[in-house]
Amino acid sequence: MSLCPGWAGPLTVEKPRPNPITAAWPRPRPHGDPTPPEDLSAAVWSLVPALYAPCASRGWCCSGWPRLETPECLSTRPLLGPFLAGRAVGHGGVKELFSSLGVECNVLELDQVDDGAKVQEVLSEITNQKTVPNVFVNKVHVGGCDQTFQAYQSGLLQKLLQEDSAYDYDLIIVGGGSGGLSCAKEAAILGKKVMVLDFVVPSPQGTSWGLGGTCVNVGCIPKKLMHQAALLGQALCDSRKFGWEYNQQVKHNWETMTKAIQNHISSLNWGYRLSLREKAVAYVNSYGEFVEHHKIKATNKKGQETYYTAAQFVIATGERPRYLGIQGDKEYCITSDDLFSLPYCPGKTLVVGASYVALECAGFLAGFGLDVTVMVRSILLRGFDQEMAEKVGSYMEQHGVKFLRKFIPVMIQQLEKGSPGKLKVLAKSTEGTETIEGVYNTVLLAIGRDSCTRKMGLEKIGVKINEKSGKIPVNDVEQTSVPYVYAVGDVSEGKPELTPVAIQSGKLLARRLFGASLEKCDYINVPTTVFTPLEYGCCGLAEEKAIEVYKKENLEIYHTLFWPLEWTVAGRENNTCYAKIICNKLDHDRVIGFHILGPNAGEVTQGFAAAMKCGLTKQLLDDTIGIHPTCGEVFTTLEITKSSGLDITQKGC
């Protein structure tokens, strides 16, 4: 951070009335012994509750989040005015700024207290700010000298310094999905007054849902259940080879399945509402829109408006499916928002897109016996390992899913109304002038998702967003460009768009804001699984990314095909399932990429992801005794490298 123009050398430090900060600071120990690290940390952390206490007024100017005051002090009074912890010669004009505004500062000079350097270390860890001074105003961490003057110029500083600093809530979370609910419940457990604003704008087809966000209602949960329904169909086919005899015709009933799945989702919706109620979190089913600093407007489905204020806000609004922007797309197409509660079987379906959502939906629809075509603009599973992606596509193609490569729709026309009706799709090649037409009962769009950030008044309070994607840039503590506003989940720029990531980041954010925690969300080596008919699990780097980062000559890639025992008697394909690990030769053959294509890939990947967190190496895998017969044991016996060029086909299980 650059120093302010106001940096003018030593400041005249008057001797004020006794400072409650320095008065409470740990006294020197006998014989000049330094304060033990645990005592120092405790002293620093004792400031956090006061910083967020509802009775705290006005502001702070400090080198970190904590407020240096003992618990006894906290129970008697708040510390009034800005709090500054810096050096006697290094306030950069901040103290004078507050003085010019008629605001009294509480100052901790780190070069005039014992262990000042260590205190600054702890505080820089907490706030991610290595310079001094560090400013808090009305329970909000403003930042350093530059940010304080910027806040003054924008009017934010004056707003925070208003006499009436009481807010309706300590924390308002906008968005009732996985990340928002996780953060809300944790903050409530830590004793804070919390509100969740959640409102589902109906899809163009009129679909909406209850509390819980995308994962519970129109994502992970119904997707996995429909994937399971398709796997059961395959299991029925396999069962005859295992001696099961049945004469009646077996068919799939879409309505029975969707009713059961929606009943389960409804129970989860109710469970979330009950959990919030038990933790005294206020839940308001209204659309949140910022109107000014620390103030948000909540509009319910009847158009009634209510205003709320809070000291801190968390944006956790997630994403919604993107549309093509062509004639007929919003009128006649559906997305994953609509599919899982569709009241009728979709029939012959065109899936547009090659994302994991597209391939997962195409996979289970084909598993129900439907005629399914996937229209692909460029590559499958962008962002994933492309060797694995092509193997996923190849397996699906072998099992009845048709692929139209290098085409995009340009117009959707309705031929017949109905449940389902008939739609004509006109598409053109991405590589030439060729056009094609097709008739389908349903067109499912899965071409990506857009962040829900553009219509919530973020520009009114200065929260910056990526204009192209709508995502919100955050630092490594999920803080946005406005100090009291945070973002978690899919709206955060550059973070994995996964439910467990949102849950973890939301929970840890609440603990940092309101509890004695410094822990940040670790976004490295996050495992995931694509639930296509043959599941693909991965953790760490794709092969292409590993080569880009570490260079091909520094990598060793071990791989093999394998044949699950369960597939042998059933007569299913050998040499289809595949496993590979990518090792960094410069770091003891550390496993930096894990990939598996096979049954139950999610279950297998989860365990190895924990091992990768612990620093898994090829030698450790070799030293591990496998569980026989399982698919996972293949990783304990990997011998063939890609560089060797040796054959990896298997002759037995």
UniProtKB/TrEMBL annotation:
Positions of region (Disordered): 1-38
Ranges for domain Glutaredoxin: 94-142
Reactions accelerated catalytically: [thioredoxin]-dithiol + NADP(+) = [thioredoxin]-disulfide + NADPH + H(+)
Keywords: Cytoplasm, Developmental protein, Differentiation, Disulfide bond, Electron transport, Endoplasmic reticulum, FAD, Flavoprotein, Methylation, Microsome, NADP, Nucleus, Oxidoreductase, Phosphoprotein, Redox-active center, Selenocysteine, Spermatogenesis, Transport
Gene Ontology BP terms: cell differentiation; cell redox homeostasis; spermatogenesis
UniProt main location, coarse: cytoplasm
Domain FAD/NAD(P)-binding: 169-506
Assembly description: Homodimer.
Protein name in the entry: Thioredoxin reductase 3
Organism of this sequence: Macaca mulatta (Rhesus macaque)
